Amino acid sequence: MQIEVERQIGENRRELVLNMGPQHPSTHGVLRVVLTLEGETIVATDPIIGYLHRGVEKIGENRRYSQFTPWTDRTDYVAAPLNNLGYILAVEKLCGIAAPERAQYWRVIMAELSRIASHLVWLGTHALDIGALSMSLYCFREREDILDIFERFCGARLTTNMMEIGGFSREIPEGLTDMVEAFLKKFPAHQQEYSDLLTQNPIWIARTRGVGIIEPEAAISYGLTGACLRGSGINYDIRKAQPYLVYDRLDFEVPIGTRGDVYDRYLVRMEEMRQALRIIRQCLDQMPTDGPLMLNESNYVIPPHATVLRTAEDMQRHFVWVIKGFEAPKGEVYMAIEHSKGELGYYIYSDGTNTPYRMRLRTPDFVNLQVLPYMAQGAMLADVVALIGTIDIVLGSVDR
Amino acid sequence: MSQNPAPDAGTPPDAQETTQLPALDTQVAAELAPVIEPATDQTGVQEINPVWVYSGYWGPLDEAQHPAIIGLRAQFGDAIEEVTFFRDEVTVRVRTEQLAEICTFLRDTPDLKYQMVSDLTAVDMLNLRSEPRFDVVVTLYSIPRRWRLRLKAGVREDQPCPTLTTVYAAAGWLERECYDMFGIVFAGHPDLRRMLLAEDWDEGHPLRKDYPMRGYKQYVQPGFAGAAPRIRETPREGA
Questions:
Q1: Set of chain A residues whose Cβ sits within 8 Å of the Cβ of B196
Q2: Is A366–B173 a contact, with Cβ atoms under 8 angstroms apart?
Q3: Rounded to an integer, what distance in angstroms lies between the CA atom of residue B181 and that of residue B203?
């Protein structure tokens, strides 16, 4: 692209084009933003994405259903269990199956822990961009505990590949619920620390309040979801609006902002972390202590490991499931879950074979990032880092 | 059973004798009997117990009861070509030329208010039917009703699709991505550029079904003189 670097637009006025990124530390990856400035005021913004494009949708159309789950980890890599969950729920809906109750509770626990971990990364990097360096150290310290829980459960910390079609094929390790309990016990005090550092901090308020205001009508028209939409005062949380798993049995609140600025979105996400703790607490209390974790079903679900080693039928079934995959019913489904960043939707068009005919990932941050030019119009140059941070993007998820 | 004679009357005397053998001690019988586990435990095959439950998140699965379909049929008539249901999902196939008007109607009608476009994408139907080649798929969401609705519009390869940017601001990037990946031109889009691929990408549109998995060009590894060996060779389009 040919960029005119400087342009005279009036007698004493001139525009300057500034290229921010793709290697800029505060763009959270490889986002490039071409800014047109007049003095320090932003006239136009053009986000350029795609530096991390790997063709995940094309890959999904060339893989069997069970083979695609690890790819979902790599789209939004700071909240991998949530990505797994969205994909698995879409496949389960397509096949017309559902996981056992105990697995559903455990999925909710893992998803909410993942939400907290994702919000912690957001809080740490967002505050770091604006200048609160120490926040990132504290946030990553607590995120470590969550990653330890993931590691204990599935062996991986970042790209977990945790959820499986039909539930979980391995039992919950002994002592893991105690780790979750310990996290629940200690995290509120830590979150109070973050809150003490930022919520009343005059510098933080000066940098965030009144910056990047999104009007409610614009938020809806831009298709924003997650904290970006709720910060503008629109009550849309898929866990409440279209509950999936066991969310309709749990008691939690959806925080709503009033002004729609960066500060409100900060408050909304902070409150979401507290509500996530409530959800996990209730799940641990309500979860059945025993019962199957994996659906016992012969077409779409991998057979139990124990019987694969004992019986010929299950060994054959396991072989076929792994080598040939299963043939999903013909049809199309769109399954949306409330990701930490907004609405994560998987659209699968199945033609009845063992690979999806069309695999579409509707990632929340791709749609949310579109609002950046709207927010940045007339803002100051120094606010751009705050505006990018407040959308909460992960470039792996934006570029797919 | 009625045709079979009663066991006492018709059975030959030999058989009657065998039944009169002294009964085994029940304790011993239990030990001698072969242990047969229930078949379900061995194969792991049981009836599908927890099935996916109908949610109702897309409105009633009945054309005569779904207010959006009633409204669309009353307003647009022939432009509503087909209504299909799968699981709980409602898909309305509409005439491509009137896609924008239909979306405007769905957005502005007070008791529908499909104000939000959840997703806009396309499906390349190359392997499934002859014409039209693409389906543009629009998933709408209504915040007050908490319902989704899917609109589909068939687009031929040489035919532009009307843009939805005049209705939903979110359509801007979603249509750009759709153009980038499928080559569908959205007539009236203010800024129809490549979205995810490079601006000078000259290898076509990768999500088309005839686009090979590894692209058309030879891949030259940096630091190597020749092209990397390709595992899967696919003929170039038109070759």
A1: 49-50, 53, 399-400
A2: yes
A3: 11
Mean pLDDT, rounded, for A70-87:
91
Do residue B50 and residue A314 have CB atoms under 8 angstroms apart?
no
Cα distance between residue A194 and residue A188, in whole Å: 10
* C-alpha to C-alpha distance for A80 and A85, rounded to whole angstroms: 9
Lowest mean pLDDT among A352-361, B183-192, B223-232: B223-232
Q: What is the pLDDT of residues B1-45, one digit of tens each?
A: 444 444 444 444 444 444 444 454 555 544 544 443 433 333 344
Instruction: Please indicate whether, in this complex, the C-beta atoms of B89 and A333 are within 8 angstroms of each other.
Output: yes
Which residues, including other chains, have CB under 8 Å from residue B141's CB and lie 6 or more apart? B114, B115, B116, B117, B118, B147, B148, B149
Residues 6+ apart with CB under 8 A from B202: none
- Domain positions in chain B are 67-187
ipTM: 0.87
Statement: B67-187 belongs to CATH 3.30.200.20: no
Reply yes or no on whether the pLDDT at A189 is more than 80: yes
Cα–Cα distance, A383 to A376 (Å, whole number)? 8
Nearest CA in chain A to B173: A370
B44/A100 touch (CB, cutoff 8 Å), yes or no: no
Domain residue spans of chain A: 6-48, 56-207+287-362
- In CATH, which of 1.10.645.10, 1.20.140.10, 3.40.50.410, 3.60.20.10 is domain A56-207+287-362? 1.10.645.10
Which residues does B23 contact at the CB level (< 8 Å), separation at least 6?
Answer: none
> Would the CB atoms of B143 and A100 count as touching at under 8 Å?
no
Q: Which residue of B has its CA nearest to A104?
A: B50
Residue A311: both structure tokens together: 């019986």
Which site among A45, A296, A338, A351 would you substitute to test the B interface, given the most B Cβ atoms closer than 10 Å to its Cβ?
A: A296
